[in-house]
Amino acid sequence: MSPALADPNTRTRSALVSRHEWEGYRCESRLVRAAAPRIAPLVLVGGAFQTKESWGRLERELLAHVDVFTVDLPGWGAGNVLPDRHGADFLADALGHMLDESGLTSVNLVGGSYGTAIVYRLAQRRPELVERMVLVGTMTSIPRHARVAMRRTLDLLVERRMEEFAEETVAFMVNADRIDSVTAGSRVRRFLMRRMLNLSEEDVAKHLANTMRLLRHEMLDTSRPPAMPVLVATGEHDTFTTPDLCRHLAATCSDSWFTQVADADHMLPLERPVELADLITHFLAGEALEQLAYCREVERTSPPRPAR
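RESULT FIELD:
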């Protein structure tokens, strides 16, 4: 995400940046403490081009309530390129290792887009670490038409046809037909286009590997649903991880809710950061969601399992 879309007040807080290594691959974490946290630390894992420093306004809003732990996993930011033979399990284990080294023994997980598969896997593999989980813009598996389009963007990137690559990649993240109905929709699209057109060679290598990982591996295994409470959210105009796809994923979880955020698309952290932070903190604190004005609907998709 861009410094232009980040709130400068996030830089006034002291951040502890730590270097880690997992199975020979470099990664880094960033922990910012809240003045008066009221819930367990929150771990943010973002999408394809997210870095640990670039959460901007969303991070600032969250810090009013909770310590925030952000990451550059292998393949992102300060991490080195991660070959696509490694799947979501590898990334989840890397994240768990970073939490262990940082002394965080009980956390809340928030995953956005690509990051939803990583936190979902961690919740399955290390349930003792996780109190609650929020998945923003997700799906159980990538539909065939999307796989074809994603491979097309990779071909364009390999050929360095950057204008076409940028246009077709941004088309996944921005619903052009409803852009006027999305908060900051045009501004977010312009930012994404600039980001795609200014990738470094390292960025290109990481994006190629990370996207091939999505296409090569089954990133979510819903046969073993996480047991902790889960909220799945998306923008009402999202045509990539659509409301129906998100609702379907929520229904596979043992104890889950689903909601659509009004006037939003796939890039919720950029489009409606204040509302997204409010939604996250309400859910993590166990507070009711039904009266939140920016939610089109709140559905109880899976009731908790009865106690034995």
